[in-house]
Amino acid sequence: MLRLNEGRVAFLLVLPTLIILIGLAIFPLGWAGAIAFRVENLFRPDIGKWVGLRNFKHLLAEDTFWKSIRLTLVWCLCVVSIQMVLGFLFAMMLDTRARIVGVLRTLIVIPVFISPIAMGLTWQFMFEPVAGVINYCLELLGLPGGTWHTSTDTALMAVMIADIWQWTPFVTLILLAGMQGISPEVIEAARLDRVRGWKYITNIVIPLIWPVVMVVLLLRLVDSIRVFDLIYIITRGGPGTATLVASVYDFTIFQAGRLGVMAAYGFLILIVINIVVILFLRLLYRQEKEARRVQKA
Amino acid sequence: MRNPIRKAVDVAAVFLVAIYLAPIYWISLTSIKPMNEINSKEPVWIFEPTMEHYVQAFERFEFGKALLNSSIIVFSATFITMILALIAAYALSRMKMRGADVLSLFILSLRFMPAVVIAMPYYLMFLKAGLIDSHIGMIIVYVGYGLPFAVWIMRGFLKDLPKEIEEAARLDGLGWLSIIRRIILPLSGPGIAVTAIFTFVFNWNEYLFALYLTQANAVTLPIQIAKMVDAYTVLWGTISASVVMQLVPMVVVVFLLQRHMIRGLALGAVK
What we know:
The complex is a heterodimer. By secondary structure, chain A is mainly alpha-helical. Helices cover 75% and strands 1% of the residues of chain A. Chain A contains 13 helices and two strands. A two-stranded antiparallel ribbon of chain A has the order 1-2. Chain A starts with 5 loop residues before the first helix and ends with a helix. Chain B has 15 helices and no strands. Chain B has helices at residues 4-20, 22-31, 35-38, 52-61, 63-94, 100-109, 115-129, 135-159, 164-171, 176-187, 189-205, 208-213, 221-231, 236-257, 259-270. The longest helix of chain B has 32 residues, at 63-94. Chains A and B meet through α1, α3, α4, α5 and α6 of A and α1, α2, α5, α6 and α7 of B.
């Protein structure tokens, strides 16, 4: 009879989770991988056949594909960098023991927990060029109102503002967790050495929370590469193709029924995300080794 | 003695947070404004509050049905996810198991899977299995969606419990299941609560899978609210009332979590 040692029991306990994740993640992934090399049409299931790399060639020849790649790149660069900077500033601001700040910390994370659909609609309502409250406020300040999500020139900026608003608090919260982990002795020592202001931030705070910074950066980057809900609800990728980032474009390919091309694009997104994750994990791992060596020395 | 600069920063922080949340006040205010004052060029601040938009959301836009669907799907999925995650996380964090770290990383890595890639195969699978637009189908999808993150944070919480607990229990002759049920469960209450709440939030707000996999019968709240924009001339009153009803549970959640939230997110993100 099979003896149940600890390792076997542990494996049995993880097994249900593994089976479910293989069924719901790995298997569909394999299926999508197969479809990427086939012609499959949602509306004409009878015409499926293997076509090798044709879907990828189709994609690479499309102008819209390259536009969506450019948009996604610009999106990630702008949104993530602004969120990191603002998030860091907010975290510095909220990193104190004052009573009121505890309440503020709770309040500021509310956006993170609200669905992008609800917030997207809220922003769309506020952006309305004629009756919207944002243009009204700008006029009060003597500034010209904008066209926001309704024109090709400003749509990308408008959805960026909505996204930055929603996710900056997430960055703040995690950086704050990192800052509160800095030991009081270090802070005291810095105070005694009169390390203050800018120097305190660059020489003490940032190096000590660097691993946390890298992790938030990774999470924000991955989520920005695959952003969908917020942009889809505000602009559907438009006007024209002004906000047609990768995931939104991929969805429109699905709606057109071109499953093969859709799967091919999905795979390209997946590969990019994988590269980003692996790069970051290697960087983090190397830094950790470095830190351990420094500690030993 | 308090530093005056610090005090100024604290005051500034109060203002900043108040302004930051303006979109949420604005949408809440709009949801109780009379119809003809919503679209006026000058924002109206003083008005007779009305509940008509809330009534409209239920009567004309089937908000009640979507609310019921979301509740059934999200509660069931969260419950199943938690049972699976707790058992798996216990094994991965507190038992001697070869490859536990690699397995944990594999599970975590699935959190990075872009939903667009697997939503389409789901659609085809569900079409074959007759699960399109069904509650059971959505529950299955959300279990898979929440599980990687739930296992990962739960594992972080369980790792923090002192190692000696099980040894003492085992000396008393308790088996695996009774150790989990009688000792680990009561001790990891806060961890379980935080994990369950996060799982609940992700599912409650999820849009993309529901967009692919529901049509009429199992439509969830985000889908139903988004439909309100498509269907008629845009009725901002009704939409804002629906948005408020969708987000109120989340605001409650934030207050329930309070200080656990930082720990929960930090565990999920950092460890």
